[in-house]
Amino acid sequence: MAVRMDALDRKILAELQEDASQSLDEIAKKVGSSKTPVWNRIRKLREAGVIGHQTVILDPMALGLEACFFVLIRTSEHDAEWQRNFLDTLLARPEVLEAHRLAGEIDYILKVRVQNARAYDVFYQALISEVRIFNVTALLSMEEIKSTTRLPI
User: ∠ CA 87-73-120 to the nearest 5 degrees?
Assistant: First the structure.
């Protein structure tokens, strides 16, 4: 169920999405309010689950993780044990940034970030040794055109 928010809440959230390291004073000034009401609204938004944990965004290229693969997985297995094993395997692999179960011909899509094609092959070999998979297709991203964590609020 969606949380009820007004325009000020949305402005605060937009500022936090832009740069969560801003001080309360900076946010309050930008949204046209004072520090205490902004703090109270942020606290309420956290309590309501609108604001989750905070983190920093790292530059994968600066860290040598230059290859981004989108991995399309088709499986002939759909029982609970296989799904549990697959989930456990994905959770244990730090290269997997995102995993989605899909409707349609492809069962799952993974976003995998590694150093290069050789590192992807190491990931792939480990994956197929741990989980039975019918078909795997890897697509190498040639250029990241848009990437954001900002939600359209």
Answer: 85
Q: Does residue 1 have a pLDDT over 80?
A: no
Question: By the 8 A CB rule, do 73 and 135 touch?
Answer: yes
* CATH match of 7-47 with 1.25.40.10: no
Sheet containing 96-101: order of strands: 96-101, 108-114, 67-74, 135-140
114 backbone φψ class: left, alpha, beta (φ>0; ψ -120 to 50): beta
Write out the residue limits of the CATH 1.10.10.10 domain(s) in the chain.
Answer: 7-47
Residue 78 has pLDDT above 80, yes or no: yes
User: What's the CATH code, domain 67-140?
Assistant: 3.30.70.920
